[in-house]
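Incident log entry.

Two folding requests arrived from the same account within the same minute. Monitoring flagged them as a possible duplicate submission, but the sequences differ. Recording both here for audit purposes.

Request one:
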Amino acid sequence: MPRLFNFAAGPAMMPEQVLAHARNELLDWNGHGLSVMEMPFTGDVFKEIAATTVSRLSALLGLPPGHRILFMHGGAMAQLALVPLNLASPDTGADYVETGYWSGRAIAEARRYCRVEIAASGEPGGFTHIPPETEWRIRPEAAYCHITTNETANGVQFPATPETGDVPLVADMTSDFLTRPLDVSRYGLLYASAQKNIGPSGLTIVILREDSGGNAHSLTPSVFDYGIQMENDSRYNTPPTFSIYMAGLVFRWIEDQGGLAAMERASEAKSRKLYGLMDSGDFYCCPVAPEARSRVNVCFTLADPALEDAFDTEAAGHGLINLRGHPVFGGFRASLYNAMPEQGVDILAGFMADFARRHG
């Protein structure tokens, strides 16, 4: 059986070194005689693990003073509600930039809790580009402006951090977090669920300015109140302990690879191979504007949809699995998160070229 390369959008493949390290420590962490999964979250041993995880992530990001890292539950889906519940003004609400499926989900969820205005939308162009900032209409009184930095379903990614002036920028970074250097000081808040570039599912990273806490709506559950979680170092309730431990191992792996600059170089190289192949002929189609193409979720279709099942079956035979696109959009999607080695992309590109020669 060929080696498997998992191109799933999430949960995604993890670095082999991280999985091997966790396996070796699974029954006995650091000579303490018990697994991380068995440790009380209020004990000194787990507090040490959590503090190390925070320290490693802070170092990777160059976390500026006045910002905090929270470990929370509920995935990015929960944050779609928790951001407006914690940050939105009941009078003015918030502004959102619509760039695809997940920003649309964020807008729909936020409208349950506050007034939402669309500052800009890529819908007229079929969500194949990022609306130019010159067209954004951000209200100066808005509590924040929300973006989704990478649309996993549409294959659209912000090439750089936008400027929102005095209005705090809030970002769902779930699928491209830690794939490139990041100036956290440009954001009032950012969040990312773990199952793509951070570790196993169950953990959500929230990074916010300390002054963002304490403003939650009165009906916000206490465990989802940013201020309360900051006061309790993410231990107001039982945190996802094993996922936090695994995230710390992933952060160390990224450090060992050369940090976020190295992740960005690898991301660019891997995605360039697939986009170059698709642009060299008309067998594969990627409708996204080149300047907005995602480097982590390469979405494409075949010129002949009747070949999709054959493509999927043959790809699996080469160890290339979970390439089907988002259920809403169909087609295919190669997710190139940090743990995807260049070897896997080379094998995929070779298979795609051969498939096109045989069926084109």
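Request two (distinct sequence, not a duplicate):
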Amino acid sequence: MDSNNKSKNENNEINESNINLTNIKSNYILSKMFVGVKKILKFEIIKYNKKLQNRLNLNIDNYKEYSEIFTPIEIEIIPIKIKNKYGKFININKNYKSNYHIYFNDNKEETKNKYEIEEEDKVKKIKIIIDHQVKSIEKLFKDCECIESIKFKKFYRNNFNSMSEMFYNCWALKEVIFSSFNTNNVTNMSYMFYECLSLKKLFLSKFNTNNVTNMSYMFYGCSSLEYLNISNFNTNNVTNMSLMFTLCSSLDIFKLPKFNDKKNTDMNSMFSGCPEYLQKKIASENKNIKEEAFD
């Protein structure tokens, strides 16, 4: 392996030196597949091309499969200025604490076990990389009062089953950008944006809600939210939507999905506190929404 490729792989955090790359004709493809790998199975690539593929220990499809498993998530966070206090910006599940890697201001020197920042740190940008071992991102940013922007990058994994309380009480949060956001196996989105008082727009077109059963309190108290289009949501399996949009008092552009009237879904106070004109419009356009949803 030449020094350039070695350096590139080291930067991508491969931490086991058991890979032998010799005369790779598709090195560009393979290097993309190794991005962010933390642990890797032992194998050798003697030579890669279609004619010799059958002679390899693993074919190119196997590498693609491993890439999906091992590629970590990247999250960029921009905090607000903090005065004379600590600013908590991430909650780490103690079972997975060693699998979170924090970088401040794009500094490549990893800052471990430092999940709070101070004014004197002069933090402008925070980067979080989460290893594949992490199975839950529940309450990840709960009560993080110093964040105003979050951008999810490379969120391809689908092993998470809950996003409950993920942004709970992030009152300063103005922007969340969900690019390549995989929610295929998520079943719980309750309290997800609970009292995110500063959010004005949310674009959730990437969300797959086919398996979600609980959306209660999902947007509760988002009093600044003006634009919300969730017409792509599949609510066929949802059984709890209680207080889902309660106190969303600024909603103007609001597009809902089709509701299944065959499900015994709890819709108690679903739109309570929303603008009166909006409640009337929702009631007239969605006959399957129960009366208690407007109480």
